[in-house]
Amino acid sequence: MASVLAGPARPIPASGHGMAGRRVVPVDALTRLGLTVAVLLLFSVSGGMLWLVGYNYDGLQGSALSKIHPSTYLFVLVFAWRSCTFGNPVGYAVHVANRRPATVLMAVIATVLLFVVIARQRPGMAGMIDTYVAPALLVLLLSEDDDEKTFARLQLVIHVVMTANALLALFEFGTKHLVFPYRFDGAVFVNDTRSTALQGHPLSNATVTSIYVLSLLSGSRSLSTPVRLGLVGLQFCALVAFGGRSGMVLTIVLGGAYVLIRGLAQLRTGRVNLLGAALVIMLAALLPLAVALAGYYGFFDALLERFVSDSGSANARVEMFDLFRHLELRDLIVGPDVDLLESMRRITGLEQGIENPILRMTLYQGAFFTLLIFFGFALFMHEVARRCHPGIWLPMLGWLILLNTSESIASKTTLMTKFVVMALVLYRPARGMVGPAFGDGRRRRLMRSSF
User: Fold this and answer.
1) Angle between helices 367-386 and 101-120 (to 10 degrees)
2) Angstrom distance (rounded) from CA 87 to CA 320
C-alpha cells in the first residue's frame, strides 16, 4: 500500500494505467463543499426529520429509493465528481484503492452480498448500502490526507452538530416534547419519552454521544482543555436524557479509567499545571453538590426508570439464543425461511428485534454470509485505526462494545459512517506522521510522545 504523506501534490507511481508522471489533483472547492454538506446531513438529519418532508426512511412503506439516507446519495455524487476532476475515473478508483485496500474489499463484499440478498428476497438490502458502502466511500474520499481545509471543516461540523444535538436533547428532556420523534412508517412510539434530538433514535443518540465523549477525552487535540471539558460535561448530561444504559455505563467506566490513568501518568512526570490542578479540585468539590441538585429536580429519574424497567430489553438478549434450538444446521449456514423466523421471533417475545449484530445476521442471512461481511468489517476497522492518532483505541473499544448491544451493523444504520468520520477527523495525526503502519520507529516514538 502506498504511503500517505502529508504535503504538496506529488507524482503517482507508474501503475500501467497510463497514470505515470501525472500529479495528484488538489481537492477542488466543490468536492470539499460536497463532503462537508454530506457529513452535515449525516449527523443532523434523522428519519423523523425526513418524514416531515415526505421521505419515509425508517419505515417499510414507500419507494425503495427512500430507504437510503440522503448523505449516502451525496457521498456517491461527490465520489463520482472527484473521479472526474481527477482526469481519469478509472485511474482515480485504482489510486484510492491502492491507498485503502481493506476499505475496497469491504465495499466489494457488501456489494456482492447486496445482490445475494436481492436474489434471495431477504431483508437488509438498504442495510448493505447505508451500513457498509457509505462508510467505505467516505474513507476513500478522505484518503487524500493532505487537504487540511476539508478536515478542518469536517471537525467544525462535528463539534457544532454534536453540541446542538446535546442542547436539543436537554431541551426535550426539560419540556417533555420531542421535536423530531422517532417514527416507523409515520407512527410515533408515544410510550417512549426519551430525547431523540438530531440522531433520531435514543439508542443511536446514546451510541454516537458516548463515542464523541471518549473522542473528546483522547482526541480532538485542536480544542483547548477547558473547551473539551465543557463539551464532555454537556454531552454527559445529554447521555442521561437519551437514557442509554450501556452508553452511560461504558462512558463512565472507559472514560473514568482513561482520565485516571492519564492523571497518574501526568503526576509521575512531576510537571503539573497549577491552574489545571486548581480547576480539577474545584470541580471535584462541586460535583457532589451538582449531582445532588440534579437528583432533587428529577434529572436522573428517567435513567433510573430505564435500569429498573427496560421494556424487556434484557430479557430479549437472553431469549434470542433460544431461536437457534429450533433451526437445522443447513438453516444456520445459509439462513432459515424468513417467515418461519419471524413467527418464532414473535412467539418468543422478541418484538424489539435481535439485539446483537452477529446473532441477528446469522439468523436472517446465515453463518456463511455473516462470516464474509464481518471479515471485511474487521479489516476495515483495522485500516481505519491505522490512519488515526494512537488515542483511537479508546473510542474504538467503546464502539466495538456498544455495537454488540443492539442490532447495529446487522441492519440499516448510519452509525458506522458516523464513527468513521469522528475517527478520521478527530484523530487525524500530525502532518508527516502518517504511513502504512504509522511510519518507521522514529515516527512511532514521535506520535507516542504527542499522545
Assistant:
1) 160
2) 52
Quote the Cα angle for 87-88-94, to 5°.
130
Using an 8 Å Cβ cutoff, are 29 and 167 in contact?
A: no
Give every CB contact of residue 120 below 8 A, 6+ residues apart in sequence.
335
Q: What mean pLDDT do residues 320-344 have? A: 76
Please list, in sequence order, all residues whose beta carbon lies within 8 angstroms of the beta carbon of residue 416, skipping any fewer than 6 positions away.
Answer: 131, 132, 135, 409
User: Which is it for the CA torsion 379, 136, 435, 445, positive or negative?
Assistant: negative
Task: Please indicate, yes or no, whether the overall pTM of this predicted structure exceeds 0.70.
Answer: yes
The C-alpha atoms of residue 233 and residue 231 are separated, in whole angstroms, by 5
- If you count them, how many residues does the chain have? 451
CB contact set of 256 (below 8 Å; sequence gap of 6+): none
Residue 294 — φ and ψ, nearest 5°? -60, -40
Placement of cell 463539551 in the chain:
231
How far is it, in rounded angstroms, from Cα 151 to Cα 145? 8
Q: Are 72 and 130 in contact (CB under 8 A)?
A: yes
- CA-based torsion, 351, 355, 361, 367: positive or negative: negative
Average pLDDT, the chain: 81
Closest CA to 69 of 53, 54, 61, 57: 57
Candidates 210, 136, 173; CA nearest to 405 is 210
Kindly list the distances between the CA atom of residue 82 and the CA atoms of 3, 22, 31, 195, in Å, as whole numbers in the listed order: 21, 16, 6, 38
Q: How far is CA 18 from CA 79, 81, 95, 330, 422, in A?
A: 21, 20, 12, 48, 35
Among residues 56, 71, 186, the alpha carbon closest in space to that of 131 is found at: 71
CA atoms within 13 A on the CB side of 241: 26
Question: pLDDT (tens digit, 9 = 90+) per residue, 6-50?
Answer: 333 334 443 334 443 445 678 889 999 999 999 999 999 999 999
H or E stretch including 187?
A: strand 187-188
> Residue 100 — φ and ψ, nearest 5°?
-130, 70
- Determine whether 279 is exposed, middle or buried from the number of CB atoms within 10 Å of its CB (0-12, 13-18, 19+): middle
Tell me the DSSP string of 82-130. Answer: HHHHTS-HHHHHHHHHHH-HHHHHHHHHHHHHHHHHHHHT-S-HHHIII
Please state, in angstroms and rounded to a whole number, the distance separating the CA atoms of residues 267 and 98.
Answer: 44
